[in-house]
Design goal:
The complex is a heterodimer of chains A (about 210) and B (about 240). With about 210 residues, chain A is mostly beta strands. Chain A is built from two helices and ten strands; from the N terminus they run αββββββαββββ. The relative contact order of chain A is 0.19. Chain B is mainly beta and about 240 residues long. Chain B has a single domain, classed as Sandwich (Protocatechuate 3,4-Dioxygenase, subunit A), CATH 2.60.130.10. In chain B, the strands form two sheets. In chain B, strands 2, 3, 4, 5, 8, 9, 10, 11 and 12 form a nine-stranded mixed sheet that branches. In chain B, strands 6-7 form a two-stranded antiparallel ribbon. The chains are: A mainly beta (about 210), B mainly beta (about 240). The structure holds fe (ii) ion.
Chain lengths: ~210, ~240
């Protein structure tokens, strides 16, 4: 016998199932009066610093059909690249920006949509700057463990080219799966980020 | 403090695989490329904080938080436990969200078509934030088993879904809790996505007769373990080249 190392194992994941919204967005599925508002719908207030942007897209399965039951969470830095978290030791993030959002995919079209701000750059472990990005986490029926990916910005070509995380992707042809395309819609910069769970355009997912 | 290191790599042999054909929906919803291993950066080491001010007084009381005319039908239970990390340290301030079917196995959801009755006094959702020692508890009714379209006659065992936020986005987890002694656990294609029997047993809450509320409710103990962090002692030595 030897001394025991770590004491516990992480609880294994299980699918969020088709009714995840009962627990995360009860008002959205018409379970009203239990709590005031579903968490994560609003990211910005009038005093939040940074460029207002819209992020939208759909999550596609291996047959090319959009998931209509997916739940999407995002986690991002503020306009200066600081995270609003006690684990952030580099400085104090914008108090008007939590940086976390959560939206259900539309039940008819499968589209998700966030109103947020464009994040600043944060450093990689070795101090080099990563390109601006948003962490994206997807759960749904049929997904046994939540999928982690990142969204980058099409108008950050120079930063993307030097991002140490994007550089880790061996198949360069897959890098564009992480880059959202910028366009103007209703006067707001709008980034479209479609996620493909499998198939030719499969998005790069991370084991973080 | 060791709270600053990166997280132990997720043990993918302990978690379900993505592609599990006996759970048919996973077939088209599983990535086929290997996941790209990424050393934790600040983006994964940080995570949102949820204050107690976000919660209402009945959020952890599913017996009362939707009730209209009286208590919901079903076996009254208390579910309690701790959120710990792999180093067995408590995780205070963790937001838990949970959802479940009613005593007849029926969810309150517009897309649910199972013929079991809706309970007018049961919504099926709740949430709680762990205290300084990582403890939580809530009151509910024991959910029923229900049939679901997979095979022609597949049934889910009684279960409660849990969503957990730790201190970092790397710890984000969704899982399910099962009930001690339920024979349905071992015939469920979703449970069976977990390859290791002892991993499955980690999701089975223990009936706790000592903490049963006399003349009121049974108690089930369910501890949740989130990923643990490396000691910074190692990280500093490894990086300081
Ligand atoms: Fe369920």
């Amino acid at each position: 016998m030897v001394q025991k190392l770590r004491l516990l194992k992480e609880s294994p994941s299980q699918t969020a199932g088709p009714y995840v919204h009962i627990g995360t967005n009860p008002n959205w599925v018409e379970i009203t009066g239990v709590w005031q508002e579903d968490l994560g719908l609003v990211l910005v207030d009038p005093e939040t610093k940074g460029e207002r942007i819209i992020i939208k897209g759909r999550v596609f399965d291996g047959a090319g059909d959009p998931l209509k039951d997916a739940l999407i969470e995002i986690w991002q830095a503020d306009a200066e690249g600081l995270y609003n978290s006690p684990q952030e030791k580099r400085g104090k993030a914008d108090p008007h920006f939590v940086g976390w959002g959560r939206q259900p995919a539309d039940g008819m079209t499968g589209e998700y949509r966030f109103e947020t701000i464009k994040p600043g750059r944060a450093p990689y472990k070795d101090g080099r700057l990563m390109a601006p990005h948003i962490t994206v986490w997807i759960v749904a029926r049929g997904i046994n463990t939540g999928l982690h990916t990142r969204m980058y910005f099409s108008d950050e070509e120079a930063a993307n080219a030097k991002c140490p995380v994007l550089a880790r992707i061996a198949h360069k042809a897959r890098v564009p799966t992480l880059v959202a395309t910028r366009a103007e819609e209703n006067g707001l910069p709008t980034y479209t980020f479609d996620i493909h769970i499998q198939g030719e355009k499969e998005t790069v997912f991370f084991d973080i | 403090m060791s709270d600053q290191g990166s997280f132990y790599q997720r043990d993918r042999s302990w978690h379900p695989l993505a592609f599990t054909p006996s759970y048919k929906t996973s077939v088209l919803r599983s990535p086929q490329h290997p996941l790209l291993s990424l050393e934790n950066t600040i983006s994964e080491l940080t995570g949102p904080v949820f204050g107690h001010d976000k919660l209402g007084p009945l959020d952890n009381d599913l017996l009362r938080n939707f009730a209209k005319t009286g208590d919901p039908i079903g076996q009254r239970i208390v579910v309690y436990g701790r959120v710990l990390d792999e180093n067995a340290r408590p995780v205070p301030g963790a937001l838990l969200e949970f959802w479940q079917a009613n005593a007849g196995g029926r969810y309150r959801h517009k897309k649910e078509t199972y013929l079991a009755a809706i309970d007018p006094n049961f919504g099926g959702c709740g949430r709680v934030i762990t205290d300084e020692e990582g403890r939580y508890w809530f009151r509910t009714i024991k959910p029923g088993a229900y049939p679901w379209p997979n095979g022609v006659n597949d049934w889910r065992p009684a279960h409660i879904h849990f969503s957990v936020f730790g201190h970092a986005f790397a710890q984000r987890l969704i899982t399910q809790m099962y009930f001690e002694g339920d024979p349905m656990i071992w015939q469920d294609p979703i449970v069976a996505t977990i390859p290791d029997k002892s991993a499955i047993e980690q999701l089975v809450a223990a009936l706790d007769r000592q903490n049963t509320l006399p003349m009121d409710a049974l108690a089930y103990k369910f501890d949740i373990v989130l990923r643990g962090r490396r000691s910074t002692m190692f990280e500093n030595h490894m990086e300081g080249n």
